[in-house]
C-alpha cells in the first residue's frame, strides 16, 4: 500500500463540484419517489374504494403535515424529472464537456427551484 496517498475521511471538508451534488440529489430524489409512491398508491386506492374513503383522504389532505409531505414528494418528482431531462440531453452529446456539465447542473438547480416553489404555492 502506498503510504503517500492522501486520506480524507472528514466528509465535511471534501469539496465536491456542482455536478456531483446534482448527481447525488438525483439519486436521493429517486429513492424518495420509490418510497413515496407507496404512500400515493395507498391514498389513491383508499379514495377510489368508496365515497367514505374519498372523504377520509380529502379530510386527511387538509393537514399541514400532509401538505408538507405532498410538497416534498412533488419536489422530489420535479427535481428528478429536470435532472433526468438533463441526462437525456447529455445522451445526445450536448453538455458532455466539463464546462457543459457544470452549466447543465446549474440550470437543473435553477429550474428545479423555480418549479418546486411553484409546486409549493399550488399545494398550499
Architecture overview:
The chain has helices spanning 18-49, 51-60, 64-91, 98-123. The protein has 124 residues and is mostly helical. The protein has one domain (18-123): Up-down Bundle (3 helical TM bundles of succinate and fumarate reductases). The longest helix has 32 residues, at 18-49. The chain is elongated and about 65 Å long. Keywords: Heme, Iron, Membrane, Metal-binding, Transmembrane, Transmembrane helix. This is Succinate dehydrogenase cytochrome b556 subunit. Membrane-anchoring subunit of succinate dehydrogenase (SDH). The chain crosses the membrane at residues 24-44, 65-83, 103-123.
Record keyword descriptors for this entry.
single chain; 77% helix; elongated; Succ_DH_cyt_bsu_CS; Succinate dehydrogenase cytochrome b556 subunit; iron; transmembrane; heme
In the CATH hierarchy, what is the architecture at level 2?
Answer: Up-down Bundle
Question: In which range does the helix fraction lie?
Answer: over 70%
How many DSSP helices? 4
End-to-end C-alpha gap:
57 Å
* Beta-strand content estimate: under 5%
**Strand/helix succession:** HHHH
